[in-house]
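BUG-567 | component: ligand-complex export | severity: low

The export step for alpha-D-galactopyranuronic acid jobs runs without errors, but we want the raw record kept on the ticket for reference. Input record follows.
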Amino acid sequence: MSRLFVEHHVRKVLPLDGVWDIYFPKEGNKIFIDDIESCEIRSLVVPGVWETLIGRENYRGQALAVKDFEVNSDCAARLVFKGVSHTAELFLDGKKLGDHHNAYTPFVFDIPRISRGKHRIAVIISNEHGELSALHIPNDYYNYGGISRPVELQILKGNAYIRFNHFTPCRTPENSWRAKFAVRVVNLGEDFSCDIRISLAGKTVVLEETQIKSGETDFYAEIDFDSEIALWEPKHGHLYRLETELISRAGEILDDLFDRVGFRVIDIDGRKILINGKPTFLYGVNRHEDHPFHGCAQTLDTIYQDMDIILDIGANAVRTSHYPNDERFLDLCDEHGIMVWEENHARGLNLEKMKHSRFREQCRNCISEMIEWHYNHPSIVIWGILNECSSETEEGKALYKEQFEQIKSLDSSRPTTYASDKHFKDICQDLPDICSWNLYSNWYEGNTAKKGLEALINWQESNEGRSKPLIISEFGGGAIPGYFDPRRKSKWSEERQAEILDECLSEYLSNPRLSGAFIWQFCDIRVDESWALGRPRTMNNKGIVNEYRRPKLSYEVVKKHFSRMIK
Ligand code: ADA
């Protein structure tokens, strides 16, 4: 399943996870779909990446993944991929359906008619670097190849389906709760009319005899709640089930979509971030989706184990560095009241890389897909963009501005931010709602945590960030797992990392100017070979647990500091 709960009853869901055939070119790294006989055939368990296959640990190129399936009646359907890393060219029964770029956002192809019987999906997957991708570049995390998130075929009862029902909770002037709904219905057939029924927290609203035209149509509704509503709060993730249904005149349910939502509002009040009116300090970790056994394909046990650790250290927040996350992890954050800073896919792109011919289109698509699919997660309290990109140049600023405007046009209910490393020369501090800084005192920079933060806060007084909340979005240091140096405490020793985090956490968690602090990083991760000389083991070793989730000395230090935060 692609969520932690059932999303449909009437709409039948055929999971396409499991064993796929995958074809690799015997020579070179290109696939020619008409010539797969000459390929090497292997089995790939989906979700999964080919780097877990013997002999393909470092393969960068194309492969062809194939899956046969059967439907037992003629129908309309939706083919849903929650993530292919990183570029997909999709065929159904040999006919091209389309393409998708970016490993970290879902995509769907509507199939107006699929006949009863056997069918074949074929996906040409690429994890290549170069002209194809502005965002997947050799980086301080690894660009895997494969079908890295769940796949499913959704079989429609009729020709129309509910694409989403975006829920926006807000307070009325009388301080009661109002739920606003934006429902998008897609009709693959002829115009017809039906009711749209929305049920939430014991109340129902029905849009009667609504005209469902061919194509896409948006509908709006709202419900006021004067009764008691349990709030979604940090560490108390109270969820309500949202039901949206298309109902015929005869009362037959034509399509349904279930989701889980939370009643909470986020406000920025000067330098404070308010959740449900209460000033809130976000403290937690930056988490990459990475594991030695599965690459970037998150298995359910990894998702649950990572959440177990996040809860054990006492964090109340996670930053999805540096891309939209698997929805099952976000579902778990919703359940546990773990606040999420989710960001579009970008890391360390200088101006030249931001000028890549596909940069704007690929960022625009990533943002629209991220917000469409993740809008209802109450845990997401901040939208972020462009980690450590060119926010010190006017041309870079224009691109930051364009992306913030896009986010606000899609969702005005959440504040925005970006993590900058352009200390003292950043010119984009007027754009976000929250100012965030990656600050590696005692690791990259020689100064102490206190001095580094003071210098940053003083500089922030010189620009529009002076009146905004401030987050230290990354801090920490590297520790090679098992390298102990109790006396010298050299860099890369576990003792040194524990010392750096102890000092930083003491400073950041108690500084009244800050509204958040995210440790870099949750676990050690694989990085691109080109980063190896600065990354022992060709890993980013700044995790507080290693890649197998085994704690380092710093783990207990983090736990000590987080456990002192006000509950
Ligand atoms: C940067 C970057 C992270 C990681 C980190 C590090 O701040 O945002 O992705 O590369 O540095 O480990 O150096």
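Assignee comment: Attached the raw record above. The chain is about 15% helix and 35% strand.
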